[in-house]
Amino acid sequence: MKIKVFNQKYKKRAAILVRPFFILFFISLSPALCAQFFFTEASQAKYKEVLKLKSVTGFPSAQQDQAANGINTYIEHLAETIKMLVEENPELLDRYKQNSEAAEIKVSGLNPNSPYYLFVLGEIKLQRAFVKLKFGEEISSMWELRLAYKTLAENAIKHPDFLPNNKSIGLLKILVGSIPEKYTWIVNLVGMEGSVKEGLEMLKTVSESETPFASEAKILRIAVLNFILGKETGSEKAVKDLYLSENDNLLYTFLYASVCMKNAHSEEALCILESSPDYSSNYLNFAYLYLMTGDIYLQKGIYTKAFYLYKRFLNEYRGGNFKKEAYYKIFLCYWLNNEDDKAIQILPQIKKEGNAIYDGDKYALYFAENRDFSDKNIMKVRLAIDGGYFNTAEDILQKLSPNDFHSQKDKIEYYYRFARFYHKTGKIIEAIKFYKKTIDLSGDKKLYFAPNAALQLGYIYRYQNNKEQAVFYFEKALTYKDYYYKNGIDNKARGALNEIKKI
Predict the structure, then answer these.
(1) CA-based, 20 to 30 A from 322: which of 37, 44, 65, 221?
(2) Which residue range forms the structural domain that includes residue 427?
C-alpha cells in the first residue's frame, strides 16, 4: 500500500503510507501454533473490505470471532490505521494511540511461539509509526520504527523461513537506506541496516510467490521504484493489472492514478479517477483524490474545474496537511486566468490555513510570504510538462527566449523547463545539455532547479549504465542547502546512491 514515510518529504507518496500490513493464511503450521492466530470467513471478508478502503466496523458476533485471535486484533488495528492515514482527522489521534497500545497488549498475551506473534507486534509498531509521522510527531515516529525493526529482526532470526518477514523487513531496509541524515543517530543506536537493493530483492521474492502477500509486495515494490528510486519502466503495467483485477478497489485506483501522474500520464490518470468507485458512500473519506483530480485540470488549463475540485477537497478534508498547497493552487487558478486581484486575496489564506510539514505546503507558505511570482508562461509550461501535455508545452516554449525574462530566477527556470521537456520526450542529449546549463546558471542560489537537475542527470547516467557519472550527480544533488523541496530530492538521491553502491 502507499505509505508516506520518513519526514514530510513524501507528499506524492502520501499515498504510500496507506499500505496493508496483514496476515491472510497460515501455511504449514501445526495446530498448536495456529491456535491463537487463525482466519475465519468473517475476518477474511473484512480484510478484503479494509484493503479496498471501504469503511468497516466490528466483526459479526459469531462465536469463533469472539475467541482470542491475533488476526482479528490485527485487522481491527489495520482498519483504524488506514482510516487515520486516509482521512487524517486529528480529533481521532488520541483514541487511535490508545487503541493501538491496547491491541499491542492484547497480542502480547497470545502464543509467543507462533511466527505470527512477533510479526504482528512488529507490524502494529510499524503502522503506529506511520500514523505518528503523518501527524508530525517525527522523533516519536522514528523511535517506533526502531522498535518495529528490532521486533521484526528478532522474528526473522527465530523463524528464518517465515515469508511475511521479507515484506516488512524489506520495506524497512529500503526506508533506512534512504533515511534523512538527521535521523541516522537512531539508525546507529539500534544497528538498523539499510539496503535498497536487498530490500527490493526481498519484496520481489514475496511478489513472485504464491502467498496472499504477493499483491501487497508488488504494490510496495512499484511504489519504491517510482517514488523513491525514480525508476518507472514496467511499473504502470504492473499496477494497471492490479487495478483491473478489482474495479471497486479504491486503493488500487489511487495507486494507479498516482503512478500515471508521477510519470506524466495525467490524461490516463484522469480517466482512472473519474471512473473510480463512488467514494462518497461505503468508502473512507478520501478527499485527497479531489486534490489529485484538480491538479490534472490545472495542468490542462481548465481553471474553473480545477478551482471547484480544490474547494471540494478543502470542504471535505479534515486534516491539516495539503491545505496550504490547495490554496496555493487556487491562487494559480485565478492568476493564470488573469484574475490577479482575486489571486492576491488568496495569499492570506495560504499563510493562515493548515500545516507546513510537507514540501508542497512549505513551498506554498514560502510563496505567500515572499510573493515569489514566476513568469506566467513558464508556469503554464511547468504544469503542462508535469501532466504530459507536451504539445501545449512546446507551443509556449517555442515563443519564448531568455531575453524575455527580467529576473535571473526566471532565466534559470527557462533552461530548466526546456531540460524537463526534452527529458520527458526522450531527447536525452538535449536534456543533458539544458540540465547542465541550469546547474551552471544557478550558482549558489537557493532554488530547487539545480539540485533537481543534478538528480535527473543521475537518473539519466544510471539508465545509461554510467555508474561513475550517476554517483557524481546524485552526490552533487545532496550538496545543495536550504531550498524548498530539499527533503524529497535528498531522499531520492540518497536512495539511488544506496542502491548503486551496494550492487
Answers:
(1) 221
(2) 376-501
Closest CA to 416 of 442, 394, 395, 446: 442
Element (H, E) at 437: helix 428-442
Output the nine-digit C-alpha cell for 7: 519526514
42 and 123 inside one domain? yes
In the chain, the amino acid numbered 350 is: I
Which residues partner with 18 through β-bridges?
Answer: 2
The pLDDT of residue 35 is 54
Is residue 245 in some structural domain? Answer: no
- Over residues 340-367, the mean pLDDT reads 93
> Is position 479 within any domain?
yes
Residue 327, pLDDT > 90, answer: yes
Chain CA centroid to CA 479, Å? 24
Most confident range, picked from 242-246, 396-400, 484-488? 396-400
Go through 46-79 and write b for each residue having 16 or more CB atoms within 10 A of its CB, e for each that does not.
bbeebbbbbbbeebeeeeebeeebbbbbbbbbbb
Higher pLDDT, 233 or 36: 36
Output the CA–CA distances (angstroms, integers) from residue 483 to 306, 362, 480, in the order listed: 28, 10, 8
Cell of 215: 499483491
Query: Exposed, middle or buried: residue 141 (CB in 10 Å: 0-12, 13-18, 19+)?
Result: buried
pLDDT 10s digits, 11-50: 333 333 333 333 322 233 333 444 588 878 888 788 888 8
pTM for the predicted model, two decimal places: 0.84
Please state the domain count of the chain. Answer: 3
Q: Residue 105: phi, psi to the nearest 5?
A: -65, -40
Q: Is 373 strand, coil or helix?
A: coil
Assess if residue 24 is contained within a domain. no
Indicate which CATH number applies to the domain containing 405.
1.25.40.10
For residue 78, which of 123, 33, 119 has the smallest C-alpha distance?
Answer: 123
Q: Are 424 and 388 in contact (CB under 8 A)?
A: yes
Q: What pLDDT score does 186 carry?
A: 55
Contact (CB, 8 A) for 171 and 495: no
The 3-state secondary structure of 464-488 reads: CCCHHHHHHHHHHHCCCCCCCCHHH
**Rounded distance, CA 430 to CA 272, Å?**
33
> Sorting pLDDT into bands at 50, 70 and 90, what band is 181?
low
SS3 283: strand
Q: Pull the grid cell for residue 100.
A: 493501538
Give Cα separations from 501 to 68, 99, 175, 284, 468 (angstroms): 47, 42, 16, 41, 10
